[in-house]
Write a structure and sequence with these properties.
This protein is an alpha+beta fold. It folds into five domains: 1-56 and 249-403, no CATH class; 62-242, no CATH class; 407-456, no CATH class; 459-532 and 713-857, no CATH class; 544-706, no CATH class. Helix content is 57%, strand content 16%. It is built from 27 helices and 24 strands. Strands 15, 16, 17, 18, 19, 20, 21, 22, 23 and 24 form a ten-stranded mixed β-sheet that branches. Strands 4, 5, 6, 7, 8, 9, 10 and 11 form an eight-stranded mixed β-sheet that branches. The chain has a four-stranded antiparallel β-sheet with strand order 3-13-1-14. A hairpin with a 2-residue loop joins strand 9 and strand 10. Helix 2 (15-53) runs antiparallel to helix 7, helix 7 packs parallel to helix 10 (364-390) and helix 24 runs antiparallel to helix 26 (839-846). The longest helix is centred in the N-terminal third of the chain and has 48 residues, at 248-295. It is globular, with a radius of gyration of 34 Å.
């Protein structure tokens, strides 16, 4: 009880000094809890949606998938006879056929895309009674004929649509126009899909190509019949294995699985950044308690002198850490819920709608947040607590402070150097790996070892690096600069720990910047060498190019040729008797001009001959395939062909790496017309001297189809750079949390350092140091610590990034580019971070009363 009272008294006596450490705990816990609440809320939203839209039993084509966007542009179907058979099964109360396709685009009269802006699907379907489970008609009426349609309320609000407006639906079967006669609103949250409805006959004809087909059958169970029993009855009626049957619970699970991988990636990525913030926070907490222990040396000596044991002193410090972790974690859990709501608002502005009505806070979320915050805080405070317990009463009463352990410092330096050396060796081994897959593990090991090594050897590095930085930065400020340098060097362990906190975040920034820049430079270099086409046409959301858009491209004036490019599913049997599922690139013969592929043997142009193909050199090596070999190719949904290998291409590229080419006409010969995939991408070459005119003509030709982009090589490179840049900006934004915590660490270190040096500051003021000079000294000390952390972080990050690029070179990304503008900007920005961090500590130091400071204990 005495230990608890002492800890409570010390904690609240130094609550101001604890505040920044508590903020670091709060931020880290908030990020963890916010991530968990946000992803749980998304899961709840999708679960409610799937539960509301699922029939008691759903019958689908055998190969149908919840998120399927078939390359043919036509969804998998089942015949109307399946509906009649299912309707006749025992226990069926009602049955209706559904038609749905996500390979559509809906535009208004201005050719503006009415689809979701966040990449969510645009779905065209027939209106059925089953839809009333999740939706209600809030205006107008359901479609009754080929010229009528209904839209969902969210899409109507987003694009200011109203009854009477005319919309055009673009499908692989053609374009058709209808007027809005009704608006249906979701009873549950719609995460972002745009949905249009037609009557059943129109949906069949316009989306599937003919009547008499459905994409699913929805069955409602009679009273007293379970979903599972109904499923068994229907399976017996239709024939086992003929179709895919799912109960409502199974359909919900399938839907969840279709979005689960995306949600998991988001969840674990954000938790990873939260982990980085926790790691940085550890340095802040260690520094805080180390300095508090040093400032309470005499107090600890008195406690020991009156009978407190080492364990009690140790326990007293750990109890303070427990209180800090508890209060910081409690506030962090609350802040996490607020953060989740903020993330939901941000996602809503991007098109992914989430409602606070679905806000999900599981009991595990605050428990995880509290445990993490408290455990991390107590572990971080363990070493300072242990040092406090080692202080002898007489040494403490003499104000000797914590004992300097030269032997421990030497051991620490040796361990740090050994780990750093081992990490450097791992990075070297990764850079010279033969395969990217095997080198990735060695790279990860090198990253961990060098990071830990730099953290441990930080005090040793501080002694040297700070002196170098001081010569370049501080000496110009005269005696004040030299005082700042000495202050930074006074306690290398503290400076090393403070700089290490900033080092971690900036190392990750530098690494990702190098990797991102190298990827862009490599892709750009590869495009310059390989791509001969003037123009590239593709959809931004991965949809196939509908035939009417492809025809418009072919008819564009000023174009020398247009190249088709389709991806065909097939099973290939090689001469060694092995069979594997592969994607065949079925392209026009002109593709050999549009993409300059290096061949190991044979001629690529001959691969576009009758019943011919090419393979990559890795595939050829693995399966003992040579030019002239015959491969058995079973086209999915079509017939089996025997194709002769006319060329083997080099896989030393990142464009179409490992591609197997054949002629479009070959695929068409072995596939039924309705199973031939649509173009996933198209290429065009302008007539000599007409590139500018052809570019404008292509854009005009595709104006009615806003889902497709026409790009020349300059546009394509810029788009690639922008995409990688956006991804990096998101990552930098998440890493900003770790950097904010690191800045708090600098602020706390300086603030506690000012308290620790109160008498010294008073004496300096007494002998003539002005307030302005004092504030400048503290600011310069902060700047040099920040630059020390930045220099270590950027150097470490660039070594990681350079090694990662060497591995990527094995996958065709062979250009290393160091983004010096970014690196220099970050380094200079670190100086401003140091200035910002010193504002409050410098202001408080300047306000000290000189006599009071001199008289302080």
């Amino acid at each position: 009880m005495t230990v608890l009272k002492t800890s409570m008294r010390n904690f609240f006596a130094h609550k101001g000094r604890m505040a920044l450490s508590a903020v670091a705990v709060l931020l880290s816990v908030a990020f963890v809890c916010g991530t968990l609440v946000f992803t749980d809320t998304m899961n709840t939203t999708f679960d409610k949606l799937f539960a509301a839209t699922s029939a008691d039993v759903t019958v689908s084509p055998k190969n149908a998938k919840p998120d399927d966007r078939p390359q043919t542009g036509r969804p998998e179907t089942l015949p109307a006879s399946a509906l009649e058979k299912a309707r006749g099964a025992a226990g069926v109360k009602s049955a209706e056929g559904g038609v749905s396709s996500s390979s559509v685009t809906v535009v208004n009269t201005e050719n503006e895309n009415m689809g979701s802006s966040n990449g969510g699907p645009t779905i065209a379907a027939n209106w059925t009674a089953n839809d009333l489970k999740a939706m209600e008609i809030t205006s107008g009426h359901a479609p009754r004929g080929p010229t009528e349609m209904m839209v969902d309320g969210d899409t109507a609000d987003k694009h200011d649509l109203k009854i009477g407006d005319e919309l055009r639906t673009i499908a692989v079967t053609g374009d058709f126009t209808a007027k809005i006669t009704g608006i249906a609103s979701f009873k549950v949250t719609n995460p972002g899909a745009a949905i249009v409805y037609f009557d059943t006959a129109t949906a069949q004809r316009e989306l599937l190509g003919r009547t008499g087909l459905f994409t699913n059958v929805s069955l409602t169970a009679a009273d007293g019949v379970s979903d599972e029993q109904l499923k068994q009855n229907v399976a017996a009626k239709l024939g086992a294995g003929t179709y895919k049957l799912e109960t409502a619970a199974e359909a919900k699970d399938s839907g969840r699985d279709s979005v689960g991988s995306f949600l998991d990636v988001m969840k674990y990525a954000m938790l990873g950044f939260a982990g980085v913030a926790f790691l940085v926070g550890i340095f802040l907490i260690v520094n805080t308690f180390s300095m508090l222990v040093a400032q309470r040396t005499r107090e600890i000596g008195l406690m020991r002198a009156i009978g407190s044991s080492r364990k009690q002193v140790n326990r007293s410090v750990l109890v303070e850490a427990l209180l800090l972790g508890f209060f910081g974690s409690v506030l962090g859990v609350g802040a996490g819920v607020g953060l989740a709501v903020g993330l939901m608002k941000i996602m809503g502005s991007m098109g992914l709608e989430l409602s606070t009505d679905d806000l999900t806070v599981k009991w595990t979320t605050p428990v995880v947040g509290m445990l993490l915050g408290i455990v991390v805080t107590v572990l971080a405070a363990y070493l300072p607590a242990r040092r406090a317990g080692k202080i002898s009463p007489m040494a403490a009463l003499r104000d000797a402070g914590t004992p300097a352990d030269g032997k421990a410092g030497l051991v620490r330096a040796i361990i740090g150097l050994v780990l750093t050396g081992a990490g450097a060796a791992s990075l070297y081994a990764a850079a010279h790996a033969d395969k990217a897959s095997s080198g990735a593990g060695v790279l990860a090991l090198g990253v961990v070892l060098t990071l830990i090594g730099f953290v441990i050897v930080g005090p040793l590095l501080a002694s040297g690096v700070v002196r170098v930085i001081s010569v370049l930065v501080l000496r110009m400020f005269g005696p004040v600069g030299r005082l700042a340098e000495r202050n930074a060097l006074r306690n290398p362990r503290r400076t090393g720990a403070t700089g290490a906190a900033l080092m971690i975040g900036l190392a990750l920034v530098a690494c990702l910047a190098v990797v991102g820049s190298s990827m862009v430079a490599s892709a750009t270099d590869e495009l310059d060498k390989s791509v001969g086409a003037d123009f590239i046409v593709q959809a931004g959301n991965g949809q196939p190019i509908v035939p009417q858009a492809a025809d418009a491209l072919r008819k564009t004036p000023g174009i020398a040729h247009v190249t088709d490019y389709k991806s065909v599913d097939a099973k290939i049997t090689t001469p060694d008797g092995k069979t594997s599922s592969e994607d065949l690139a079925a392209a026009s013969p002109t593709y050999a001009q549009d993409l300059r592929r290096e061949t190991v043997s044979g001629k690529l142009s001959e691969a576009y001959g009758k019943d011919a193909m090419s393979v990559g050199d890795k595939f050829a090596e693995d399966h003992n395939v040579k030019v002239g070999s015959t491969l058995t190719v079973a086209f999915k949904g079509g017939r089996t062909a025997h194709l002769k290998v006319a060329a083997i291409t080099s896989d030393d590229t990142n464009v179409d790496k490992g591609a197997k080419y054949t002629n479009v006409t070959t695929a068409q010969r072995y596939l039924p017309a309705d199973r031939v995939p649509q173009n996933m991408i198209m290429f065009a070459k302008a007539e000599d001297g007409k590139a500018k005119e052809a570019y404008a003509s292509l854009k005009a030709a595709l104006k009615p189809y806003p889902q497709y982009k026409v790009q020349d090589q300059t546009d394509f490179k810029k788009d690639l750079k922008d995409q990688i840049g956006q991804l990096l900006n998101i990552v930098y934004g998440l890493l900003a949390l770790a950097i904010i915590v690191a800045v708090l660490g600098v602020v706390n270190t300086l603030a506690l350092s000012v308290v620790e040096r109160t008498r010294e500051i008073g004496l300096m003021r007494a002998i003539g140091l002005s307030r302005r000079q004092l504030r400048r000294m503290i600011r310069l000390e902060s700047v040099v610590i920040a630059l020390f952390g930045a220099l270590l972080g950027l150097g470490l990050g660039m070594s990681w990034g350079t090694t990662a690029q060497k591995l990527l070179a094995l996958e065709g990304l062979g250009v290393l580019e160091i983004p010096w503008p970014t690196i220099i900007t970050v380094f200079v920005g670190s100086a401003f971070v140091g200035l910002f961090a010193a504002l409050v500590p410098a202001f408080r130091a300047g306000r000290m009363n000189v006599l009071g400071a001199i008289a302080s204990e």
